[in-house]
Design a protein that fits this description.
Length: about 220
């Protein structure tokens, strides 16, 4: 299975001056934890790290330190996650039929979850890891007034890994580009193209390190492993 790791963001919500994936959690960069999980997942045979060239020296040193034995390619990132994944898809070897996409920022993913997504994508065209929403969610207008309370039974929090048939995902990205769609995950492109995306059970601990609070949470979760 080919794995693309979008890792080309700037981490605005983290508030730092450089890519948040180089921040340390339990004495290792965030991206190193993500790569360790990918390296340990037996189903993953090829890793593409989508990142800004300015970060390549740091990322290459991290890959070398981890002694990753699988092929690792560096792919230039874009100005949005969507554009970065688009670049990643163009860089996949022609032999790739399916692909998993996993955010570099979800550094707590387990090899088991990567393996189970790799297995499940053999049986469908698109899937995402997700967990049921625990809170009551409110839809609020621009004046701060609640409009509705959606039925929680139907609400799931999207995670990565997300897995897809490569040809279909390339077609959906091309369609998105033509139509000017802006989406925050790849499943949304499938949805807009009317292609089914299946949920696979995600992990409560598979949080995305987005804010300084998430860094503290990641530190705690890793300390328990
Ligand atoms: N141009 C971009 C933007 C984001 N990402 C990646 O997409 C994942 C999810 O994005 P997010 O957590 O939002 O990261 P940032 O864009 O860095 O954060 P922010 O939105 O706070 O700036 C991250 O692994 C990030 O590196 C990417 O590859 N290319
Ligand atoms: C793909 C994702 O991780 C699913 O939760 C997420 O959408 C990434 O972007 P976001 O803008 O931080 O939601």
């Amino acid at each position: 299975m080919h794995l693309l790791i979008p890792a080309a963001g700037t981490g605005k919500r983290m508030g730092g001056t450089r890519n948040k994936l180089l921040l340390q959690v339990r004495s290792q960069p965030i991206i190193a934890w993500t790569l360790k999980a990918a390296a340990a997942a037996s189903a993953i045979k090829w890793i593409g790290i989508i990142s800004q060239p300015v970060d390549w020296p740091d990322f290459k040193a991290i890959v070398a330190d981890l002694n990753v034995t699988k092929p690792v390619e560096f792919i230039p990132g874009g100005s949005s996650r969507q554009e970065s994944v688009y670049n990643g898809l163009q860089a996949l070897p022609d032999t790739a039929e399916h692909v998993l996409i996993h955010d570099g920022a979800r550094c707590l993913v387990t090899p088991d979850l990567l393996n189970s997504c790799a297995q499940a994508i053999q049986e469908c065209s698109g899937l995402i890891a997700a967990v049921p929403v625990k809170d009551t969610i409110k839809v609020v207008d621009k004046h701060g007034i609640i409009q509705t309370t959606p039925d929680r039974q139907q609400l799931w929090a999207a995670q990565t890994p997300q897995g897809f048939n490569v040809n279909l995902l390339k077609q959906c990205h091309a369609q998105g580009l033509r139509q000017g769609w802006e989406v925050t995950d790849d499943a949304a492109l499938f949805e807009r193209c009317g292609i089914e995306v299946r949920i696979v059970p995600g992990e409560e601990t598979n949080l995305k390190v987005t804010t300084p609070q998430d860094l503290a949470m990641a530190e705690f979760i890793l300390s328990q492993r």
